[in-house]
């Protein structure tokens, strides 16, 4: 096959695969098998408008833990997000409320302050700290995978909405990973340079063992 014909053949082949893969949506079928690529697609004939509507963010979250309540609209909550690469969450912060240091390995994040005053920031892989106190209407972006946090810096409740560049951004909270797990106390003490007694106390707070 000569070069022009080969180029045309490859173009047509790629085009065929491209059109075969294109579909309007892939609503998550929670009863079907799940793969690293996501949930299976619900039968289009069984999809309804309710698959694309989620009402869970209209109610304030419980602020009893860390004085912060987080409500997510990830693909595990909202089937219409499957395959679309977006999601959203709500955070309610009581005075003194904290969203502790955490990271999202699967997504970048934009935080919007809707009510109140919030001090927030992230730490780069070079250990540079980017810190800012935000007011109503301000936004900040957190690059994918970097540790970040938010603290209510005012004297009234704060409300923030967070959007993600993935329908399943993942979550790892630093404190929970260390003190809410069964990682042995002596290893945490050695790797964090904390006193073992402090580690045990924190494990008691976060429900860890070991």
TrEMBL record:
Signal peptide (residue range): 1-20
Where does the Cupin type-1 domain lie? Answer: 55-200
Q: Does the keyword Translocase apply?
A: no
Query: What GO cellular-component annotations does this UniProt entry give?
Result: apoplast
Keyword Translocase on entry? no
Instruction: State where the protein is found.
Output: Secreted, Extracellular space, Apoplast
The record's GO molecular-function terms, alphabetically, read: manganese ion binding
User: In which residues is oxalate bound?
Assistant: 104, 109
Which Pfam families does this UniProt record tie to the protein?
Cupin_1
Instruction: Name the source's superkingdom.
Output: Eukaryota
Return the similarity comment.
Belongs to the germin family.
Name of the protein in its database record: Germin-like protein
Native source species:
Ziziphus jujuba (Chinese jujube)
Q: What is the lineage of its organism?
A: Eukaryota, Viridiplantae, Streptophyta, Embryophyta, Tracheophyta
- What gene name does this entry carry? LOC107423900
């Amino acid at each position: 096959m000569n070069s022009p014909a080969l180029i045309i053949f490859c173009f047509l082949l790629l085009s065929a695969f491209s059109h075969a893969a294109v579909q309007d949506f892939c609503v998550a079928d929670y009863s079907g098998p799940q793969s690293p690529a996501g949930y299976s697609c619900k039968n289009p004939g069984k999809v309804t408008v309710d698959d694309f509507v989620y009402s869970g963010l209209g109610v304030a979250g419980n602020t009893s833990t860390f004085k912060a309540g987080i409500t997510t609209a990830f693909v595990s909550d909202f089937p219409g997000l499957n395959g679309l690469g977006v999601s959203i969450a709500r955070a309610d912060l009581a005075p003194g409320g904290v969203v502790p240091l955490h990271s999202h390995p699967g997504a970048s994040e934009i935080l919007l302050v809707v009510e109140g005053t919030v001090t927030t920031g992230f730490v780069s892989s070079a250990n540079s700290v980017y810190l800012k106190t935000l007011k109503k209407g301000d936004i900040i972006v957190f690059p994918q995978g970097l540790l970040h946090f938010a603290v209510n810096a005012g004297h009234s409740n704060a409300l923030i909405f967070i959007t993600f560049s993935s329908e399943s951004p993942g979550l790892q909270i630093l404190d929970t990973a260390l003190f809410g797990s069964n990682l042995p106390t002596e290893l945490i003490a050695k790797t964090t340079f904390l006193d073992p007694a402090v580690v045990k106390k924190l494990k008691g707070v976060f429900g860890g063992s070991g």
